[in-house]
Sequence to fold (265 residues):
Amino acid sequence: MKKYLVAAGSNVDLGRWDTSDDGGLAEDEGRKILKTLRKQLEDYQELLYADHRHALLVVLQAMDTGGKDGTIRRVFEGVNPVGVKVASFKRPTDAELAHDYLWRVHPHTPGKGEITIFNRSHYEDVLVVRVKNLVEPNRWNRRYQQIADFERMLVEEGTTIRKFYLHISKDEQRQRLQERIDNPDKRWKFHAGDLEERQLWDDYQQAYADMLGRTSTEQAPWYVVPADRKWYRDLVVSTILVETLESLRLTYPQPDTDLSGLIVH
Ligand code: ATP
Ligand code: MG
Fold:
């Protein structure tokens, strides 16, 4: 999975990552592995909860139709819903806009034993905000460092952070938008504004590239996930999450008193 990792402080050229990469796997092979990974994730989530020393924050960012919702659905299928939360960040409300951009984010960070998935995130404040000129350049420019500082604080206080950019090609987006228009069951997902955003594809790609290079850190790394093939996208995200949970060396806590030999009457 190392090849999908964005090196800290690197100059990112998104063209380097093939959006339709399948890791050399056949789809049915990949799906089998995915099934095993799901079971592992389910077990690790329970262990994370029992261990109660770590929190896991998963950040998902993507262009429209990039597959954030599908990734959440498929990767966390089978995981006990009690231990997983999803926080979706839409256009800020007036109250949110009256505060700093991290104000609405911080209350949703995971507590010990929890996994929280950010479906879009504070990164919108250096992406859409930059592309649409919603604040002055010197303001969004300062945010890369502010975000890195915020995430460092979370990590130092016991949160593990993994960030995923779901990387699709412009043509894949065209097909997915067309499908949303043509398929009556998917039409509800289509917004006229999506076509306007698509016109800004190159600006967004540049904003993503800068953001990835400037905010991938050793402690809170970004991964560029090939996302044209949904099964491979899910496989990459699942693998990284399982490896991450594995690395925490989670354990079941010892009971306060010695329970061995105790009989319940
Ligand atoms: P889908 O992939 O299903 O369309 P979505 O995440 O795009 O889901 P939408 O309700 O379509 O959900 O879009 C949310 C919108 O909110 C996005 O266009 C996003 O750019 C915008 N948004 C999120 N955060 C901010 C922000 N801080 N400032 C301005 N716009 C934001
Ligand atoms: Mg949308």
Summary: The longest helix spans residues 27-51. The first strand starts at residue 55 and ends at 62. Residues 38 and 75 are 7 Å apart (CA to CA). The mean pLDDT is 97.
